[in-house]
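Protocol step 4 of 5: obtain the predicted structure for the target chain.
Materials: sequence only (see below). No template structures provided, no constraints applied. The aim of this step is simply to have a reference model before the mutagenesis design in step 5. Sequence pasted as it appears in the construct record:
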Amino acid sequence: MALFDARFAFDAAVPAGYCTAPPEDKMEQSPSPALRAISHPAFWTLFLAAILALPLLRQALGPPAPPLPVLGTVPAFRFTDQNGTAFGPEALAGKPWVADFVFTRCPSVCPLMTEGLAALQPRLGERVHLVSVSVDPDFDTPERLRAFAAEHGATSPRWHFLTGDTASVQRAVTEGFKISVVHEGAADDVLTLIHGVHLVLVDGQGRIRGYYDSADAAALERLVRDVRRLD
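Step 4 output (structure tokens):
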């Protein structure tokens, strides 16, 4: 009896009398596209050029910016916001914020400051709060602050307008934030109420990190950059 030769197998698709042999060892695989790429001399030329260019790129970009200076600490205070709610710096713990100092009877600079800060707010980012402290607190009730905010586009829930008793506000503004406030005339003489127009950047730990002239476009651009540098 003939023995079966495993080298041959019948295929129904092959005419009678023919047989097919099993395939020999698998065909040698060609290199992958990635392997071919890194094997090309041009790849290593570009790779070495990139390494050599790194020092030049660092030099062009300059050294990393140093941390912002710590210029002071926000004073403890307990004021009232435009909604009649008690408000202190602990409400903003862990959040950066920008403070300015205004009053609702101001005939000139305060509306401009508020509208300018409202336009700048989207560039400061969602995490940044704004705090506007009235330097005319005897007149500026929460209702008047709320109306002033609405009139000048300062309606964000992250914007807090604050009022309090005159002595506490004066002490916090001049001694804590280091912003000047002088009222040399009668209580109803708003033209003699003079105050600083700088914005104050405060970090999430309640530390003052910068002062920025609200009327200086270059200073406002610096504020936008500095906010991004805060942790």
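Step 4 remarks: The chain is about 35% helix and 20% strand. Residues 1-22 have pLDDT under 50 and may be disordered.
Proceed to step 5.
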